[in-house]
Amino acid sequence: MDITAAVARGADAPLAFETVTLEDPRADEVLVRIVATGVCHTDLVTKSVFPAELPIVLGHEGSGIVEQVGSAVTDVRPGDRVLLTYSSCGDCSRCTSGLPSYCENFVILNTSGGRADFTSPLSIDGTRVMGAFFGQSSFATHALVSRRNVVVVDRDTDLVTYAPFGCGVQTGAGAVANVMRPRPGDSVVIFGVGGVGMSALLAARALDVENVVAVDLSAERLAVAKELGASTVIDGAAEDVVAQVHAATGGGATFALDTTALNPVIATALQALAPMGTLVLVGLGEPTMDLEIGHLTGNGKAVRGCIEGSCDPQEFIPQLIAWHRAGKFPIEKVIRTYPFWEINQAVHDAESGSTIKPVLVL
Fold first, then answer.
1. Total-model pTM
2. Which residues belong to any copy of the Enoyl reductase (ER) domain (predicted)?
């Protein structure tokens, strides 16, 4: 079938709406009409590195309505409302242990530009277009996804507000809920309160953590963080960030989250921890980092990586929805919606930081 997609043709070119041919579903695939899709930092990073000769359809925070299912899909039906998340194989030891975000085939399934067999479901005039980004490529009117990408939700679910739950929101919230697992008396400091950091803040508050510190360069974002329950907000450009965190937490935070992937910020986050504290890293950016080993061996601190919130989306996304419906996770306060046709404006606003979490509405 022919669909309309926002095609990336190089780092510096704007996304262009083009008619793209989408294959029919294979036996284990589901055809979804996209209703909304978030714009994630990973989309921006990928666009910046994909060469112009390899056009790709990005987007991996989709939501929509099922239109068709493959012959092997028995528990998803046309008309179902769904949220889309990352892809996993379901067969490796990590998937079968309940850790699909660490799937042994994660890179192939999510960032190779195609399916597990390296084919793409997308083409233009018979020429391959890189697709199946995070198993979705949801910057389009329709997406062809595997069954494991699909989280079926109730028919009254708000598909616009919940669209980003499949990546950015579960990444931040899951880092707190599934990796840190803080108790109410613990303290959490978050470096970078964009969409991921705000989601982490909301998760900490949903878990009744009262001492949550937000660090960012944007006064506007810090104001929103304060509104959402941060007990202390700190200008990341200040010379005494570590001292301010220690003062706010009584000697250092129990947990720190870095969303920036910037070496100086990571070093600051490690220093901001109390002895025996844990730093969780979720950002994509600098490939290496410098650490003072003494912070680890001398104080028992730990550094832990986390991808996609270390969660099984089939279990964690319903938990996030339950928190939201109970008034404990007001993610709508950081979302700004854009018509699909304004995707380049949404990308610009995400890059500039003027919008915390853009969501495109089709």
1. 0.96
2. 10-360
